[in-house]
Automatic annotation (TrEMBL):
GO terms for molecular function: amino acid transmembrane transporter activity. The chain crosses the membrane at residues 41-60, 67-88, 117-140, 161-178, 184-205, 271-293, 313-335, 356-376, 382-404, 416-439. The keyword Mitochondrion does not apply. It comes from Acer negundo. This is Amino acid transporter transmembrane domain-containing protein.
Amino acid sequence: MVGTQPQTDQDYNQPANDERLAKQKAIDDWLPITGSRNAKWWYSAFHNVTAMVGAGVLGLPYAMAELGWGPGVAILILSWVITLYTLWQMVEMHEMVPGKRFDRYHELGQYAFGEKLGLYIVVPQQLIVEVGVCIIYMVTGGKSLKKFHDTVCISCKDIKLTYFIMIYASVHFVLSHLPNFNSISGVSLAAAVMSLSYSTIAWGASVDKGVQPYVQYGYKAKTTAGTVFNFFSALGEVAFAYAGHNVVLEIQATIPSTPEKPSKGPMWRGVVVAYIVVALCYFPVALIGYWMFGNSVEDNILISLEKPAWLIGMANIFVVIHVIGSYQIYAMPVFDMMETLLVKKLNFRPTWTLRFIVRNVYVGFTMFVAITFPFFGGLLSFFGGFAFAPTTYFLPCIMWLSIYKPRKYGLSWWTNWICIVFGLCLMILSPIGGLRQIILTAKTYEFYS
């Protein structure tokens, strides 16, 4: 027929491309990280507080006892400054390529180090951190429930820690089915409020108790080797306390973004508020707790505070509510990774049944490991150095140097290299102390006792 144009390959391919894009969009809308992008800046604030202020804050006075006054204060302040700087870098890098958002830590890693290498560098470390935190929070949640039970009901029959971990886990078998990051914002807000509350109780009750008679600030270990190992292990406990970076890109992914109003504005506002709250929680607990109890402080400050019973019981319930929120924040990127793998790579259909099975299996796995290895302090410093230090202290700096290529020997170049060296020292030294602590605990530990 006159006037008709012959169809090109492009015309034939167009419907197929549109169909592929529509399918891709449907999957992205189903996945937990990219499922909802309507978060406000204050969501970023309380998500970051919940992710950052974890059970680690209660171990800070103990870390101070192993570090001593001078090194302890210096490392706390240095960590606060360095991690705020690396967090700023991640917020900036989220949208540094026009029209693209790095919604997940490993996507940024792939852009910085290459498609394959980026995955191999980031994913194992991120998984160790997120799964490690979930396991540690299972232990913490169980221990705090047990402490509450023992404090409130002194004459009650003693119940094993195993059962308390199971009770704590049962909440996650329900909460883990909230579909995406924004849907857990209520849980996260409650958790953020609780973290400020129990931190205040921890240092307030310490002040009320006053400086203990015969308090000592020297190192507790009798040998030089013991002192050095304890010092290393305390570095890991501090690193664990600043572990929010593993979920920061995922949190930013939930904030809407346009070229005129990029997501980094509201995200950064939330981060600054979160870091002020972090300082209000960490510094008073660490310094006042150590000042009052000296080197006899327990690895969880609430254990050192026996009375008043109602207040310590309440603080332990606050800890339980907080670690429920924290567990969800760290589990969400793991759910996202598993569901992405199943739906995009193995071509499973994105259904409710798939999500139900995947998430229940994950919660069951973390519960099983927590019941098997409940050595709280040693686990903190081992994981703290091994995986938290890289993802928090120096991976963002390496990515920044690789992508932005700042002028050699300029301010940005030096700042990043100082952070990298500090982070590397943490990563190498703290697992040594943590491993020793786990071995010492394991000598007397009986499985499922």
